[in-house]
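ingest -> validate -> predict -> emit
validate: passed (alphabet ok, no gaps, 514 aa)
predict: started
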Amino acid sequence: MYYQCTTCDFEAESIGDDVFVDCKANNHEILEMSGESTQQRRHRQEIAELPSDQFQEKLQQEFTHLKEVIEHDFPNRSFAIEVGLSVKAQLKIEGITQVFVLIFMGMPSTHKSTVLEIISSLEDCYVSDSFTPKSFVSHSANSKKADLAKVDLLPRIRHKTLITAELAPMFSGNPDDLVERFGMLTRILDGRGFKSDSGIHGQRGYSGDYSFMWLGAIVDIPHRIWKLIGNLGAKMYFLRLAADRKSTNAKLEEIKKNLKDDSYTQRLESSKQAIKRFWSFIENRAENKIEWDAENNSDDVFDKIIKLAMLLAKLRATVPTWHTSDSDSGGTNYNYEMPVIEDPSRASSAFYNLARGHAILFGRNYITNDDLTVVIPVALSSAPKERVELFKLLIQNNGKLTSADFIETAKVSRATALKEMKILNILGLVDESEEEGTTKPVKTIMLKNEFSYFISDEFKGYLRKLDYLLTPKNSKLSPKENLEKNTLSDTLDEHLGSEDTNPLPPSASLEGRA
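emit:
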């Protein structure tokens, strides 16, 4: 699609392009045209004819330009665009049928919706501001069975990128609804279609390749939902968008500058034009699916991707916990049931595909260490933040952490410190020991050897580079979240195995007394 002045024959992709300034001043008619403009056709041919090395160089120049435009229009959001495009680019790769769901998390006014709107300006995006999982395959009683295919969401998003700016409703509701909803999504996110039965229309659905990509946004994930994700193995991944850390004065000056400069609409349009221009290089270079050069993949990067998947499986596992005594024990006496840990092979495949999508943005059909820059923050954003913060603290201390250090640095109670350290031990991330302290024994945890990569200089370098992404301004649990986490009456616990409720018999638990 493009626009053309019927008098001057000027063409442009946007009706707001400067080329139409005189046309508008002279009241010329400007029409929306289908197909390719002369300029678009010439641009496509030029890209297709570029040698591979020149194409890679040109693509990197265009990507640098895109990041500069985004940073000018919406500071600190170019990386979110980069990760979002890495998800969308997976649709360009031959053989990828696994659905990748990436949900941006961040406080209000962190431009989550803006990032999604910029990406949604690209072709093959399907925007839905409100839907229910049941709309993927409808059984509406108000429609005839023959008409339902017209309203089913699943065929409409097939081989496209679904964009949902507000996913909070999907993560809220009573426990029965949540379990049903996530159970349905788990099957749909396999990318192999979905069939369901009802008493009204019998069996309806689709089978075969019904893959798609999904980008969404939410402020944060409640603790009970992390528990649900850990139990059901939902195929969802997240990226935390850090809150602005500028001082009050700096923020005041930035807002003043934005008010004086271009309007939000102009900045949004500028970013959309930049992303369309960059994406046109990928679209015009790869009219068909891209064949992957697996032989050029780095085995070293493969190993790191698998280690990240194994780490994530541990970090978002669920460990049902029970008090072992009603006496005032300071909260340190607990029983722990066997943890529910997802198989890391699924996350390994998802992270590999994310790395491949990132490689496409740089004109490669093989992965390198550079592609880990999108995998690492997604991995560390896709687990409960308090557990991730403890793991990062362990890394900062070179893999060894005492309860005293944890209490002092994280500003938590001794009971909380001992409990969280014990959970990491049960999950198989650390070994636990006890050392003599000044007045009381001091618990110590040490990272297991199989996770030693995460205390390497290389991984610490990634963390330093991505620190502003991985450390949200308010990273501690809110009082409400703490209540959700430790409450004795959390209804969802009754469905999924509880934390701090209904004591297990000793034979069914892993006893841990600090």
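The two ends are 66 Å apart (CA to CA).
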